[in-house]
Amino acid sequence: MLKYVIKRLFYMIIVFFIITLMCFVLIRMLPLPVLPPEDSHTKVLLMRREALGYNEPYLVQFWIFLKNIFTKFDWGLSEKLYFGREVWDIFSQKLPATMLVNFYSIILSIPFGIIIGIIAALKKNTWVDYTLSTVTMVVISVPSFVYAFLIQYIFCYKLKWFPFLMKSGTDWFSPAMFVSMIPPIMALSFGTIASFTRTTRAELTEVLTSEFMLLARTKGLTKAQATVRHALRNCAVVIVPSIFGEFIGILGGAIIIEKIFAVPGVGGLTLNAITGLDYNIFMLSTCFYTAVGLLAGIVVDISYGFIDPRIRMGSRK
Amino acid sequence: MRKFNKAVALLLASLFAVSAVAGCGKNNVSTSASASNSTSASASASASASTENKVEVEKFEGDFIFYDSVSTLATNWNPHTYQTSDDAYPRDEAHITSDLYSVIFNDALHPVEGKDPFTGYVIVPEMAAADPVDVTAQVKKDHPEFNIPESATTGYAWAVTLRDDLCFDDGTKITPDTFVESLKRLLDPKLLNYRAVDAYDGTYAIANAKNYALAGNGAFKSLTDLGFATVEDFIAAGHTEAELVIDINGFWGISTETGKGYVSAADETLIRDPAVQEGQDEDYVSGKYLWETYLQTGAPYASYQSQYVGMEVFEYEAGFPFEKVGLFKSGDNEITYVFNSSLDGFYLKAYALSCNWLVEPTLYDSCLKETETASGSVWSSTYNTSVETSRSYGPYKVSDYQLDKSIHFVKNDKWFGWTDGNHIYVDPEDGKTYPMFQTTEIDCQVVAEATTRKQMFLSGQLMNYGLQAEDFDQYRNSEYAHSTPAETVYFAIFNGYESVINDREAAADFDGANVDLQSMTLNSFRRAVAVTFDKDLFCATVSPARVGAFGLIGNTYIYDPETCAYYRDTPQAMQALCDFYSVDTSKYASLKDAVASITGYDPETAKTLYQQAYTEALEKGYITDADNDGKSDQTVTITYSISSDSDFMTKTINYMNEKIGEATVGTGYEGKIQIVKSAPCGNDWSNNIRNGIYDMVLGGWSGSAMDPFGLTELYTDPARAYDGKWFDATAVEMTVNVNGKDLTMTLKEWSDALNGTMVTKDGVDYNFGYGSADVETRLNILAKFEGVVLGTYDYIPMMNNGSMSLLSQQVYYVVEEYNPVLSRGGKQYLKYNYDDKEWKDYVAQQGGTLNY
Questions:
Q1: Which residues are registered as beta bridge partners of A39?
Q2: Do residue B109 and residue B231 come from a single domain?
Q3: pLDDT at B847
Q4: What is d(CA B443, CA A173) in angstroms, rounded to the nearest whole number?
Q5: How far is residue B705's CA from residue B696's CA, in Å, rounded to a whole number?
Q6: At CB < 8 A and 24+ separation, what contacts does B729-738 make?
Q7: Which residues lie across from B746 on neighbouring strands?
Q8: Is B461 inside a domain boundary?
Q9: Same domain, B529 and B638
Q10: Range 422-451 of B in CB contact (< 8 A) with A
Q11: Complex ipTM value
């Protein structure tokens, strides 16, 4: 197992470098922001670009980029949005908010999604199943920012249950902060809950008709016991990996949600970096999302072995 | 004995510390009347008698928090490096700085003859202890390094005595040395600060500041600047061809990879021209190519040699000492400013004697970071980017800041204004005296979405809400709605870059059988477009907060700051509009009535002009009429250069297409003119117009509200003008009657002279700058200039910028009338109906949602 993990990590690093190199070259191929001639500021920016190797071949630029990261953990300076400031400092300030909102969202989505999925599967081909399946499809089809506006209007404006915006400050685990996070968490969770519901229902429906389920019932287990102990465990092989996939998906979807609820996270930062042509920030964001995606892939693969002992990681046979 | 010495030393040190703190926080009894205008929450609610001048000042009790929102939060409010208006929020909206002199409303305490309270303004000392003193004669004698002209006797050097209780929010004293050291850092050549240019360039430039900031840098000087008419003259004077450089930025609109706007005429390095598609002719050009193809003697544009050919001059000597820069300590508590030009009055105190570059030097230095690069060192700074690195010397200070999320300000208890007795005013309604800055805290959140802002506002959580287009029907007549005009005039600017248009039509993929671009270059075509739209109706349709524009200069510009008189109200400006729109003034009781009749819409004239344009276009071969149906075979397709797509763009283009469609009925262009959107081009939208890549845009600019004369430079400087590539302001002459004598000069010369540059014509020097010519003459020139530029039809005025917002029921303005200088008084004069607690209760009583 350890050997397998090490091997996967090694591959992950190679893939990460390839993706990073591709992104780096593509980003550097984009036209740089036009600087006004004869402006004193132009000179500063040009000197900075030279220091970052903009006038060198792309591979040399990439080497400078990597060298700065590995020798000084220097991701460069912001050229536009936060002029002259360390990109990493800005990014690290914003990471907690994004991670927390996404983490809470996935934590909320798992039980709700699975429970609703189980109900739909157990009530297969009844009005309950039809209703849940229809709602699920509708919820999956509508983008999360639509819920964001609805949630804000209903719960924040009309009912006054929650604040409009996420609370300021870095007291990430205070009750007030948590309450202020609920609207964005809800907005991010609806689609995820629907997705889990659909996955769970589909898997459970299939497993419930398996012969071993019949055997379990004939052994004297109740339907609930058979479902929880045998059917659900079999479904987990599909459901658990989808949790990590959804987490990555939420990170992507959070970009707009962060803007609506003023979540000071990296999603908005990435969006601003793209529109503001602040390439160093964009590069760091790209590396972050790439790394999270690749790590999630490894975790998913490893999780198979824990969920279903029959699956042996790294086994040649 | 040693213990005794220690004890004495400790006692002395303690006394020193106590006296320093006391000196910083106390009011300056010697310079101001103590009016006991404390605004602390614990103070009594009743009016209290002041001490010396017996002014009774009301007191406020409670917390008055101003809840604000922005789309983009300030990230860098360092006065030396900030770039955007978002970054100016802490200074402009939260008052973390003070000025040497401030502009306040006239009231019973500061009366202005002939003006009702709060209809004018006065300038009073703020950080300064008294009015500035003109020391030009003395400085000219003692400091020849400032090069004050021999003939000058006043206006160049001014001594300012500072208050002796100035300090930053951490208690650090502000002294004359702080001013000098701050300017030194602003201009430091190694720091290359973005805002240095504010101190060394323009009308209010400090003497020698440019020499210090640009020490060792070269600059392009045209043959004209060098005193030559042609290259031959230049060579004959002993120079060589190798010295020749070309102003590629001015002539071709490009710059080198290193940002330089000029290159040697012998330089063969290819430079990409972004205005030309890759692969087409002249997508890359060199200095040598431009010289040989266009500018050398005998080439097509040789007549422009004097303007775009010249040499690089190193006029800023390396190692220029800061001691020669025109700001120095001239007394224990006195500084002296020396300017490049003579200044006085409003402009001197309100603009020139600026200290918005003041920083706390010790903290500033600790925030600098040097990064070694291959080509030298790059410096960056974290000064004024966080609570820890922020320093205030105004009424408020930063108390909390979260990047891209929120910023919070509280009262700066070290600010002298809380206790000096000067920061009070008499309310014109109740006649009582109140302290300025009733707001105790300012809380600003990032709220990106307008819908969220609206809901928060209606829930009582924001102080104001900027109305969106969809809100106007519901709120435009609300008693809480306030309209705020702005300086910017938006023009419909059409592509007139004929050579580029011809190139586009000659391209292989151009559909010449169905599309025409050249018609839009016809003067008759543009004149037709100019009378196609009712400007006010246009604004009401596409952007209701704005109003129709008819002239080159907007409605809010003040030509005489001493009297707060508007340019558009002058007879000269009104006559210019009547002349341009062919209004028969004899039919109206007054010029004002005649101007009021202008709508910009004249369908009959438009039809005639469209038909005239059609005939001319046929004759010139721009369009064809193969089937002889009297209509163009081609559709004039005008591509609107959009930065990003929006509802406003869609409405604008739809409106214009509809009205052009109506106006062309029965003409050769009926159904044959179409405005279409370009692909979103971000910040390049204006360059795309300047370079002729796209054909139309609603563009404009704003200048200083007090200086409409300065706007003329925008139309004569080819680097700034939208039509700089096809309109030459040095070739268009204008005649103005000055002191009974007709004087003819080019537009460029008139603009230069109007803005204080000495222009020599037929051996006579002319300078019509502020203070150098009487105001009537200046107005005559400006109005004539406006008429001439409008007559080019390169700029068709469409709308005056403006906005409308709702103000919370929690607060109100002392004055409802908008003032271009002080707006409605800002936070300085804002008053509260409820304190924070009362407001929350009130909102709850209303069911949590307020009705506006």
A1: none
A2: no
A3: 93
A4: 22
A5: 27
A6: B730/B307, B732/B788, B734/B784, B734/B785, B734/B788, B736/B780, B736/B781, B736/B784, B737/B780, B738/B777, B738/B780, B738/B781
A7: B733
A8: no
A9: yes
A10: 445-449, 451
A11: 0.87
Do B401 and B252 fall into the same domain?
no
Is B100 inside any structural domain?
Answer: yes
Beta strands in B111-164 (DSSP E): 121-125, 133-134, 157-161
CB contact under 8 A, A50 and B375: yes
Q: Which two tokens stand for residue B31?
A: 């310079």
For Cα atoms B688, B694, B699, give the angle at the middle one, nearest 5 degrees. Answer: 65
Question: In this complex, which of A82, A164, A264 lies closest to B402 when CB atoms are compared?
Answer: A264
Pinpoint the alpha helices (H) of chain A.
2-29, 40-51, 58-72, 87-122, 127-141, 144-151, 175-208, 211-218, 223-226, 232-260, 266-275, 279-307
Closest Cα to residue B73, out of A253, A168, A145? A168
Residue bearing tokens 């300086």: B487
| Phi, then psi, of B265 in degrees rounded to 5 | -70, -10
Structural domain containing residue B262: 219-313
- Residue B209: which H helix or E strand, with range? helix B209-213
Query: Which pLDDT does position B25 carry in this prediction?
Result: 38
Radius of gyration of the CA atoms of chain B, in A: 30
Work out the pLDDT band at A156, boundaries 50, 70, 90: very high
pLDDT at A33: 65
Same domain, B284 and B369: no
Beta bridge partners, B445, equal: B69, B406
What's the pLDDT score for residue B836?
Answer: 96
How far does the CA of residue B364 sit from the closest CA of chain A (Å)? 15
Residues of B in contact with A55 (CB under 8 A): 257
Query: pLDDT averaged over chain A?
Result: 85
Q: What are the residue boundaries of the structural domains of chain A, listed by start?
A: 96-264
pLDDT given for residue A313 in this prediction: 58
- pLDDT at res. A58: 83
B193: distance to nearest CA of chain A, Å? 7
Task: Give the mean pLDDT per block of 10 residues along chain B (852 residues).
Answer: 47 44 38 35 36 73 96 93 89 96 94 88 95 96 92 91 96 97 95 88 88 84 85 90 88 75 90 74 89 88 85 83 96 95 87 92 94 73 94 97 95 95 93 96 95 96 92 91 92 92 90 94 94 94 91 91 87 95 92 94 94 96 93 95 86 95 96 92 79 90 83 86 89 93 94 85 87 89 96 94 95 90 93 96 95 94
How far is residue B367's CA from residue B361's CA, in Å, rounded to a whole number? 10
Q: Which fold has domain A96-264?
A: MetI-like fold (1.10.3720)
Report the candidate in B432, B438, B436, B422 with the shortest Cα–Cα distance to residue B46.
Answer: B432
B525 contacts B613 by C-beta, under 8 angstroms: yes
- B259 close contact with A: CB closer than 8 A: yes
Gap between the Cα atoms of B475 and B464, Å rounded: 13
Locus of tokens 């922020």: B390
A92 touches chain B (CB under 8 A): no
Q: Are both B59 and B137 inside the same structural domain?
A: no
The reply to whether B51 touches chain A by the CB within 8 Å rule is no
**A39, A84, A149 ranked by CB distance to B451: nearest:** A149
Quick check: B114 contacting A, CB < 8 Å? Answer: no
By Cβ distance, the residue of A93, A260, A268 closest to B449 is A260
Band (pLDDT 50/70/90 cuts) for residue A41 is: low
